[in-house]
Amino acid sequence: MRIAIVRRECSLKKAGAERYCVNLFRQLQKLGHDVTIVGEAIDDDLRNEVAFLNVPVNHMTSWTKNETFAVNAATVVRNEKFDVVHGLSRVDGLDTYRLTDPLQTHWVNVYYRQPWNRWLQTWNPRHRAIFAIEKRLFGTPK
Description:
Elements: E1 2-6, E2 9-10, H1 17-30, E3 34-39, E4 41-42, E5 51-54, H2 62-78, E6 84-87, E7 96-97, H3 104-111, H4 115-121, H5 125-138
């Protein structure tokens, strides 16, 4: 099976989802699957282990980083033929998704406890971009 794993960064130098990405692709390869990482960065020493498709990202602001990664990763995936597209990052066009980053809509409610501050954060461009990405991700019939 040809499987794409979408994660902004695939790395053994970090903990969490970046390391999980490495462990997942290695285990899928052991099972005989053809795995491709779709992301912005991968450790140099991992490039000879797995196919990697680079996603261009606009680093001008935090919200443009999030939005351009989501949109551009979906474009990169659409231009290939995968049996399954598994996401470890918030991206459009996934077949399956594992929530590895905090759900932003919930996180804002927990982190900003004061109602006025929570309301104010709904106007933060970064939060708005992630809210929109999450709405697209969880609102699809897939």
